[in-house]
Every structure is written in C-alpha cells, then in structure tokens.
Design a protein that fits this description.
single chain; D-Maltodextrin-Binding Protein, domain 2; two-stranded parallel sheet; 11 helices
Length: about 290
Amino acid sequence: MISKRHEGLLSVQKPGATRLPRKSSRLFPVLRLSGLLPFLTIALFFTSPQARAEEPLVLRTSAQIGGAPKFMGRNSEHTPSGFCPDLLRAIEAADPGLKFKGQDQWRTLSRIVYETSKGKLDLACGLQDSDSRRRSLHVIDFPVWTVDYHLLSRQDDTATPQNWADVRALSPDNIVLVNAGSSVIKKLEDLGIRVDSSGQTLQQNVDKLWNGRARFYYVRRPGLEQAGVKNVHNLRIHASALGSETFYMMVSPHLPENIVERISVTLQKLEKSGELQSLRDLWSEEELLL
C-alpha cells in the first residue's frame, strides 16, 4: 500500500509519451553561485553589523581664531598646526575608533562654545574652565595644558607692574585687553581690573595696544611669536607672570557618556606614555617666544 505521503510523488506515464531527463535541482545553481562567492563574501562583510561597528566614530570640532599656539596657520594653504591638532591626532592614533573633523574650519572662541553647547560641534579643544562653561558644556576633568599669562605693553611704556594691585594703581590709564570670550574676563573684573574684551584675535588686540587704545594686553606667552602677528616685536612682554590658566577638553552635553569616557581614558593613556607632556613641551619651547 502507498501512503498518502508518497502518493503525490508517483505519476503514470501515458503510452507513447517520451520521458524527459529530470534536471538537477542543485547542480546548475551551485555552479553559478560558486563564481559569485568571493563577491558575496565581500559584500556581506561590508554590510554586516560587525563591519559597521568597526567604522570610526567621527566627532566634529573646530579651529579657534586667535588661539595660538593651540591652533595656528589661519589663512594658510596648509592644514592648521598647533597643540590641539597634534593632540587630536594623538587621540586618533591611541583610539582608532575615534576620528575628528573640522580642524581646518575656523571659528571665534565664542562661536565654538555656543555651537558645542547646542550640539552643532561635538568637541572643543583647549578651553579654560569657568562656571558658565560648566553650565553649558561637559568638561572632561583632565588638564591637558597649563600656561602662564603675562602683560604685554608698548616698548616705550616704562611701567613694570608686578601684580594686579600695581595695575590698579595706574588708574585711569590702566585698561587691559583680553580676547573676546575668554574665561579670564570675569576673573579680572572681579579683581577690579578695567577690561576691554572687544577684540576677537591676537592681531586685533596687538593693533589696539600699539595704537594706544589700552595700556596692557593680558595674553598667554606661548603663541605670540609663532602666530605671525604684525607689530609684536615693537611690544614688550613683562617677565612676571600674573596668572596661569589650565585648559581642558570640553564636549557637547548631547554627546553620549560612553564616548566622553573614551576620550578621557585616551587622554590618561597619553599622559602615562609621556606623549602628552611632549606636546606641551613642544609648543612651549622658549625659542618660540619673544
């Protein structure tokens, strides 16, 4: 007896009919696919979740106008140089899963802070800490660089203030220039210093100082010579540092916490290896200064 399961597999050949050879259901497709296997394998690799996960995460950043020696080379045909481009490349080398873009796009300091706070940029390199920035940005609490700040004055100015009390004593001719958006503005105002922070760049403030629109310019010493600022050799930098400021990496509050942690861990690795200190030393070399 034939079971119902096999009944449909049998057929009756009519008299005079010619039986055609049954085609293989596997041979032809296997032969065709065998030539495509290398291409299918490559396609599957590049579209697999694992391959997508291995693609670096691109973080948006910016170069800072007037931020020498953190960023240098504006109006140059070359990629910006400076402490921050070197540091970002070091982070990429230490963590190949991270990639930065935008180092060749220039913004003012105020614009960088604003766009990072709104999530238009992901990271700002080398910003000074302040209460206002902590309210709008996520500060990675790892100091990447600490530099001294000095007063700059005209060569013919004989005043030699050793501290802020000396500067206040020169009133009313004691206006101090500070770059717009700098976190030191409030610190100086709290000390009773008359501050002019309308200048956006090193060159603008050097020109204002040279033209007698202020008595001093409060500026970090590294970067003056390298920035290619005009008239800077007609000015005098005071030997006594009136303060020091520490710079941090700051990121958008919209950036996931695990990415923030990766950046922090990588910075610690660079510190431990000595590479971060080498960058600090490189961009603070005395022969680069006035």
